[in-house]
Amino acid sequence: RGPITFAMGKNDTDKIIPIIEKWNAEHPDEEVTLNELAGEADAQRETLVQSLQAGNSDYDVMALDVIWTADFAANQWLAPLTGELEVDTSGLLESTVESATYNDTLYALPQNTNGQLLFRNTEIIPEAPTNWAELEASCADIESDCLTLQLKQYEGLTVNTVGFMEGWGGSVLDDAGEVTVDSDEAKAGLQALVDAYENGTIASASTSATEEETNLAFVGGETAYAINWPYMFTNAEGETSEVTDNFEVQPLVGQDGVGVSTLGGYNNGINVNSENKATARDFIEFIISEENQTSFAESSFPPVLASIYDDESLVEQFPYLPALKESLENAAPRPVSPFYTAISKAVQDNAYAALTAGKSVDDATADMKAAIEQASN
């Protein structure tokens, strides 16, 4: 036990600083020092990896993007949360615990999460679709763009491609880590995405859109639907929004009903070289207390504690919480693999070619499979 350092990307540290201050007031002999990392995910990862590869203990606890957890666990950089480090996860959303688990062992504790939502301009489309076919049908007679989402060639394209594959019953990897991206179901999901782009259901601007372009299009009243993260809700409600009081949110829609969002968020891992692991364990548990998870919800930083989503006073303040809970309960972690970076590149490159360069879905998924198998051998 003793003082520890907590490393996290600077974009979101405003949510954790009050929690650290509260911890430090209660634990003067086990103070937590915040170590802010770069804002960009790739730069954060590089800083952590360099330190861990050198066997350093500069960072006792690290806020890991959910997609890094398996990689860090496979490299034996994280202390497994077993034995004396075990933490009760029974109150957490199941999909978040899954994202922190590698080879059936919990290697990090979920801190906050994120799931995508389907935003709808109710002036253009009054009725909520219950599946993908209904969404497509509702686009037939409108004059604005119909659906805007992130299909630019970056991580957002991976997220949405995998979401379509999962929403049609497919996956990139199965539970055993085998590559299943060329299954009939995965192909059907990608085909639905490509068809919707070609027939105009998906706005042509989507292939150059990140989250921010999507946000501007929806808040500006230029698109009937948008897929984005919950942060857009506050912007859509804002004074300069063209859709204030005229929009609703729901979980994504898939082939047969509720679709599958990709999971975002941070998992807190303990450095295997930390000298004060007992303090580190207690601190990551402190972050998931009801009080601290409520403060996350109040900062539009989706909590991992399931009960928060049923708090009536919070739902009144943040009407998207029930839709977000349903989205998270149906969410899938991105492929859990130490080779995630290569998997994402394979998905992005080939999905983009299928969307913009006429590559067939059969060829795109076959090439995804070949690239993923090559990276993992």
List keywords for this structure.
11 strands, four-stranded mixed sheet, 377 residues, single chain, 15 helices
Nutshell version of this structure?
By secondary structure, this protein is of the alpha/beta class. Helix content is 42%, strand content 14%.
Topology:
Blueprint: E1 4-9, H1 13-26, E2 32-37, H2 41-53, E3 61-65, H3 69-74, H4 94-99, E4 101-102, E5 105-106, E6 109-114, E7 117-121, H5 132-138, E8 145-148, H6 155-167, H7 184-198, H8 211-219, E9 223-228, H9 231-237, E10 247-250, E11 264-270, H10 277-287, H11 290-298, H12 312-317, H13 321-329, H14 340-356, H15 361-376
Parallel strand pairs: 1-2, 1-3, 8-9
Antiparallel strand pairs: 3-11, 4-5, 6-11, 7-9, 7-10
Helix pairs in contact: 6-7, 6-14, 14-15
